[in-house]
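ugh finaly. both done.
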Amino acid sequence: MSLLADEAASAREAAAWTLSNLACAVDNKVPLREAPGLVAGLVSLLADSSARVREAAAETLSHLAWTDDNRVPLREAPRLVTGLVSLLADKAARVRKAAAWTLSNRACAHDNKGPLREAPGLVAGLVSLLADTKADVRETAAWTLRSLAWAHDNRVPLRESPGLVAGLVSL
């Protein structure tokens, strides 16, 4: 996927958003399951210098984690969860929101559930987002915590999460 490695951030962003749309467009889906280098390329973009590229990569991974007929196996994707957890502290609100949403989809997608309970900083990062300055980020963090509390095969223990209840009650 050479566009995902293009020197121009605008080209990387456009490529990631196009892949996102192709993953989930009802009447224009393209089978992405077997695309060589797709997941690795998108995971590498989670660390891109451009916030717009990081957001596009996270959103695309969110669609690939959830969309039924175009779901890509993400369980074995090295650095995916750690990359998303690190984005929970990103300077850009839209990146924080996209990372939280992708983690929510990753937690609940039937065949994309994986060991999120071992992800260092996951719950603390989401709890900190409950106090974010942006309402949509707070809302997405709450939904993601709901997914982690509910997802039967991927439930994350939240009982001993400092600030969790206080953060939810304050919303």
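ok and the 2nd:
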Amino acid sequence: MMLVAKKAPWKRAPWLTLNDSTCFAAPAVAHDQTGKVISQTTAAAQYLGTALGLAPPTGLRAEAMKVALDIADIWAEAYKVRKEADSWAAAEAYAKGRLLKWLNVLEACATKYGDGSHMIGSSPTFVDFLLSNLLLVCQFMFGSDRMQPLLAQVPKVAVSFAAVMGMPGVE
């Protein structure tokens, strides 16, 4: 999403062509000119964000990483819960319980570190894109009908999500 939003040239390559022993599995970002390869979603997002002008303000970099890692934790937890849920009732209980608690943590972070439209600082950062990825995945896993009432309870998170999704070319 960041590459599309910034209209940066990019290409998708088969994982096997990466051939970098420092990376265990996809996703990874490789820079053709420098040969630099960064794996792990959060690290790759931070790298791309910095390269694309989507880095957080210098004074909020540690806070940005904290929020980005919270998002990674939520993503992993939500995926595991949804995969192991034996019914929609179990998935909905998670969404209305622990997932909503996590979303409230993100809302508190947006209140403390953002400007009301962005998670960190006063312009989009890689954290806003990670958040958008999380929310898209949650909508897919739990359904938009279950996620919309949760997002209504975390307005700053919802605004950040809408801002990213409203960028030209971002879907």
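summary for the 2nd one i guess: The chain has a mean pLDDT of 94.
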